[in-house]
Write a structure and sequence with these properties.
The chain is 38% helix and 23% strand. The protein is built from 17 helices and 23 strands. The termini are far apart.
Length: 497
């Protein structure tokens, strides 16, 4: 029997059953925070499905196992009752279908948004909102998103079939090559499977008081109190994370939806106290109203991890022993991260958004295949317009990443931080010409194979061999090391045998 968990119910399933995304949403709902109505299908659905599909590719008309199909139908009935909308009806229910593994796999599994928008449902949404352009934009997004998970073409013009096939696509994505490679790199078991989260859509592209954002409660590079993050007004959330759009600071939401901004700040405070840690949330603001779509512990640089641990002690959320245990040896090594020597006259090529600290110096590779090839002879810097999950082999081969588009919440930034690679993103004056094998920055041309260095702490990109210095211990690191010394001094000495 496939397990189904309604968002807002009192169930407390483990993250291995509902995945990280589902678990976070259940936490938010129990805390009374605004979460779109929906349900989570447990990882046992993947176990039922995995025996029927082996090639990692969803196909049109693919049938879900009866028990999974029944779980989807029951969950949809609940969402219809809660929203007063009907799948394929005159007041159409439109849903998102997203993956949810127990361990975060950023960008590796499938998501399908705007599901349920058949031809008739799109017309009904246009009539309901009085905005044909908005309805048409959502329908376009469905078709484009569908093409990324199902190479056989357009979604069926039946709302129930769309949902079933979207769920199948999400389950199938666990077996995709990029997902298998990511699990191999991170030691994630192949048989863990993914949960599926289905929720009523909330539309960041609805109107001028709408938008989407990825927000950290504290700066992921420095640990300074936030909120910080990337946002886009009148856009859906995929536009923020896919790296193709010029994102804006999350504070832009304060101007277009001040009430939602106040609710966001309050929600971050509640979540930090619940998790006793810095958190990252994905949010949508629809016509001035805030909705939370995901929460997780923030991925922090070494320097940030140290400061956050120390600050949480000062705020009474951790004791000193917990703070010391939370900071790993890797964090301590990263806390004194190398950066470009400001006293040296480097040949600055461009500047972007610092996204993952450290200095990466290597020969320019413009594709993942080139990065793998060039890395045989020494370090390479992967330079892309933006990255996608298909670039994972390039991440593995490179010592760092530079992108022309995207912000600190983009795919490139998130994956680089998870792998500990320096990254600079959103260098807007960079043009990557793969066909000609060059990078153009204004009148300057850099050829694939030339040496560049990217400083993920400052955003600077320089030509040639960089001069690098290592920062000293800041106040937070000194305090933490003092606590380590105190704890060591308090330990009883071993007696000679």
């Amino acid at each position: 029997m496939t397990s189904t968990f309604l968002l807002g119910a009192a169930d407390s399933p483990g993250v291995d059953i509902v995945g990280g995304k589902g678990h976070g949403l259940l936490v938010c709902a129990r805390l009374g925070l605004p979460v779109p109505p929906g349900f989570v299908i447990g990882t046992d659905a993947w176990q039922a499905w995995s025996g029927t599909r082996t090639d990692g590719t969803a196909r049109p008309g693919a049938r879900l196992p009866d028990e999974v199909s029944a779980a989807v139908a029951a969950g949809l009935a609940h969402v219809e009752a809660e929203t007063g909308r009907t799948l394929g009806g005159d007041r159409p229910l439109v849903v998102s279908v997203r993956s949810g593994s127990a361990v975060s796999m950023p960008g590796m599994l499938s998501t399908v948004l705007d599901v349920g928008l058949t031809t008739d449902a799109t017309a009904a949404l246009a009539a309901e909102t009085g905005d044909e352009q908005f309805a048409g934009d959502c329908r376009r997004r469905l078709r484009e998103g569908w093409a990324t998970v199902d190479r056989h073409g357009a979604p069926p013009d039946d709302a129930s079939a769309q949902v079933e096939q979207a769920v199948a696509a999400v389950l199938d994505s666990w077996g995709a090559p990029r997902a298998r490679t990511y699990r191999l790199l991170h030691g994630i078991p192949d048989d863990a499977g993914t949960a599926v989260v289905v929720q009523a859509m909330v539309f960041g592209n609805r109107d001028a008081r709408s938008g989407s954002a990825v927000v950290q409660s504290r700066d992921p590079l420095t640990g300074a109190p936030g909120p910080v993050g990337d946002a886009l007004v009148r856009h859906q959330g995929a536009d923020v994370v896919d790296g193709t759009s010029a994102v804006r600071p999350v504070t832009d939401l304060a101007a277009v939806a001040p009430d939602a901004w106040a609710d966001l700040r309050a929600a971050l405070d509640v979540l930090e106290r619940r998790y006793r840690d810095a958190v990252e949330v994905e949010v949508t603001v629809e016509s001035g109203r805030l909705w939370l779509l995901q929460v997780r512990r923030a991925t922090l640089s070494g320097r940030a991890a140290v400061r956050v641990a120390v600050d949480l002690v000062d705020e009474g959320l951790l004791d000193r022993g917990e703070a010391v245990r939370r900071v790993t040896a890797a964090h301590l090594r990263q806390a004194r991260v190398p950066h470009l020597d400001p006293a040296h006259p480097h040949d600055v090529v461009t500047r972007g958004t610092p996204a993952s600290p450290g200095v990466a110096a290597g020969r320019v590779a413009l594709t993942s295949a080139a990065a793998v090839r060039l890395a045989v002879d020494g370090p390479v810097l992967l330079v892309r317009p933006e990255t996608s999950p298909e670039d994972l082999p390039g991440f593995r081969a490179a010592v760092g990443v530079l992108t022309a588009r995207g912000g600190a919440s983009s795919h490139a930034a998130v994956v680089a931080r998870s792998l500990g690679l320096p990254a600079v993103v959103g260098a807007a004056d960079v043009e990557v010409d793969v066909a000609c094998g060059v990078v153009r920055v204004g009148r300057r041309t850099v050829t694939e194979g030339d040496l560049l260095a990217a400083d993920g702490s400052t955003g600077l990109v320089v030509a040639g061999t960089p001069r690098v210095v290592t920062g000293g211990a800041d106040d937070a690191l000194r305090r933490l090391l003092d606590w380590v010394d105190e704890a060591t001094a308090e330990e009883p000495a071993e007696e000679d045998g």
